[in-house]
Amino acid sequence: MAGDGELKLLGMWTSAFVLRVRFVLNLKSLPYEFVEENLGDKSDLLLASNPVNKTVPVLLHAGRPVNESQVILQYIDEAWPDRPPAVLPSDPYERAVARFWAAYVDDKVRLAWLGILFRSETEEERAAAVAQADAALETLEGALRECSGGKPFFGGDGVGLVDVVLGGYLGWFTAIKKLIGRRMIDPARTPALAAWEDLFRATDAARGVLPDDADKMLEFRQTALALGASKKITL
């Protein structure tokens, strides 16, 4: 069967992209070994498994590497079709919609997140990046209402592709809250998305995996900045 073989995930505890893979493995109750990588001293296994980008996450399935987080998420869904829940909808149109919004998150939210934490040299630059994030999240507020049909998650009653992709950033949103003095997903600005965040953080998929120590995250940020991580961010 396609899903046979042991699973090993190469990653870092802070990585928004690694976290989304861990969420889906947890959702499907798939046992795996998590191997923590060092941002400043990447392992030979990582470099051999992802020689093109040399980044995490890498999922090793029976020794064969699968790279890039959204590719990995869809691979897991396809390799274990009998392991519910499905991350992608069965309907082709709904799958396309989910892929569109997942790509939107990794375009608009990711760029704003990088700007706030890693690419702002002045308060004015950080404020501009926060404004970009606010605009992106306001758009996602509307997308949540449309995709969920009034249900709690982008995936409806349960967590789906867009939920895990956006959910991966929530650990860093904890750190951003300390920097800017308010929640990144602001209940006053995006109430549906704020309710979604609280529910997602409480899921079995996220509990115990999603970082929630702002000081520890910001300390890691300083290490990443010293290593020039903003040039090829894999956090």
Automatic annotation (TrEMBL):
<dbReference type="InterPro" id="IPR045074">
    <property type="entry name" value="GST_C_Tau"/>
</dbReference>
<feature type="domain" description="GST C-terminal">
    <location>
        <begin position="91"/>
        <end position="225"/>
    </location>
</feature>
<dbReference type="InterPro" id="IPR010987">
    <property type="entry name" value="Glutathione-S-Trfase_C-like"/>
</dbReference>
<dbReference type="InterPro" id="IPR040079">
    <property type="entry name" value="Glutathione_S-Trfase"/>
</dbReference>
<comment type="function">
    <text>Is involved in the conjugation of reduced glutathione to a wide number of exogenous and endogenous hydrophobic electrophiles.</text>
</comment>
<dbReference type="Pfam" id="PF13410">
    <property type="entry name" value="GST_C_2"/>
</dbReference>
<dbReference type="GO" id="GO:0005737">
    <property type="term" value="C:cytoplasm"/>
</dbReference>
<comment type="similarity">
    <text>Belongs to the GST superfamily. Tau family.</text>
</comment>
<keyword id="KW-0963">Cytoplasm</keyword>
<feature type="domain" description="GST N-terminal">
    <location>
        <begin position="5"/>
        <end position="84"/>
    </location>
</feature>
<protein>
    <recommendedName>
        <fullName>Glutathione S-transferase</fullName>
        <ecNumber>2.5.1.18</ecNumber>
    </recommendedName>
</protein>
<dbReference type="InterPro" id="IPR004045">
    <property type="entry name" value="Glutathione_S-Trfase_N"/>
</dbReference>
<dbReference type="InterPro" id="IPR036249">
    <property type="entry name" value="Thioredoxin-like_sf"/>
</dbReference>
<dbReference type="GO" id="GO:0005829">
    <property type="term" value="C:cytosol"/>
</dbReference>
<dbReference type="InterPro" id="IPR036282">
    <property type="entry name" value="Glutathione-S-Trfase_C_sf"/>
</dbReference>
<dbReference type="InterPro" id="IPR045073">
    <property type="entry name" value="Omega/Tau-like"/>
</dbReference>
<dbReference type="GO" id="GO:0006749">
    <property type="term" value="P:glutathione metabolic process"/>
</dbReference>
<keyword id="KW-0808">Transferase</keyword>
<dbReference type="GO" id="GO:0004364">
    <property type="term" value="F:glutathione transferase activity"/>
</dbReference>
<dbReference type="Pfam" id="PF13417">
    <property type="entry name" value="GST_N_3"/>
</dbReference>
